[in-house]
Structure formats: structure tokens, C-alpha cells
Write a structure and sequence with these properties.
Strand order of the largest sheet: 1-4-3-2
Helix content: 10-25%
Largest sheet: 4 strands, mixed
Low-confidence stretches: none
Structural class: alpha/beta
CATH superfamily of the largest domain: 2,3-Dihydroxybiphenyl 1,2-Dioxygenase, domain 1
Radius of gyration: 15 Å
Mean pLDDT: 95
Length: 129
């Protein structure tokens, strides 16, 4: 058993794809037309880290209730954890790509960590050895 996908509510598909694929280097696994339960058009968009693991289902917010959750799906806590082999290289790459870090890097017992915001405003730990 494994977790295959986690839904990430985003304001729009294309900027989210650009961030996860263009900035973080994820792979675009699926981007196909779909429909909501009441028949309105939407897209089924899945991205995965290039090294494998659980993917993200990028789901455009549908209605005010979901729009209020964009960027705050975990109530202000770090929502996702991205482990990398070369922390300094990734940190510098993200800085060059104008990714907003909200906590600078520090050394913890589990590695070097810094917190950044994704395109939707969710908090991520960037973790390296």
C-alpha cells in the first residue's frame, strides 16, 4: 500500500503546472479534460517529483468554499516536505526563480531545512542532508 496522490487546491491550472514543472522540476504525468460531478468542464492534472513518490493532483478551486482553502489547506502549517540531495543547489535555484522563502535555512537533527511558499501559498519544507 502507498499514497499515490494528494489533492492540492490551486487558483488556476497553468500557473500551478508552470511552478511545479518549470520551477520544481516535477514531471507532468497527466493533463486531460474531465468534468465535475455536475457536468461542468475541468481538467485532471497530475504532477510527480522526478525521483518518484506520491503525486499531486492539481485541482482548480471550484466555488467560494474551495477558494477560501487555496494556500491554507493545513491551517498555516507546513503542508508538504520536499527532500533533495543537494540542498544548497536547490535552495539557490529556487531563490533565482523568485520562490518566496518564509524561513531561512537552518540545521536540524534530520538535515538542513528552509520553508518556502508554492504558487498557491502553501508552505513547504525544503530538506537536504
Amino acid at each position: 500500500m502507498r499514497i499515490d496522490l494528494v489533492t492540492l487546491v490551486v487558483p488556476e491550472y497553468d500557473p500551478a503546472i508552470e511552478f511545479f514543472v518549470g520551477v520544481l522540476g516535477f514531471e507532468l504525468v497527466e493533463d486531460v479534460p474531465s468534468v465535475t460531478t455536475d457536468g461542468r468542464p475541468k481538467r485532471w492534472v497530475v504532477v510527480r517529483p522526478s525521483g518518484g513518490g506520491a503525486g499531486l493532483l492539481l485541482a482548480r478551486a471550484d466555488g467560494e468554499h474551495q477558494e477560501r482553502r487555496v494556500g491554507d489547506q493545513t491551517g498555516g502549517r507546513v503542508a508538504f516536505f520536499l527532500r533533495v540531495d543537494d540542498f544548497d543547489s536547490w535552495y539557490n535555484t529556487l531563490i533565482k526563480n523568485n520562490v518566496q522563502f518564509v524561513r531561512e535555512s537552518k540545521t536540524e537533527s534530520y538535515g538542513t531545512v528552509a520553508v518556502f511558499r508554492d504558487v498557491a501559498g502553501n508552505l513547504w519544507d525544503l530538506i537536504g542532508a
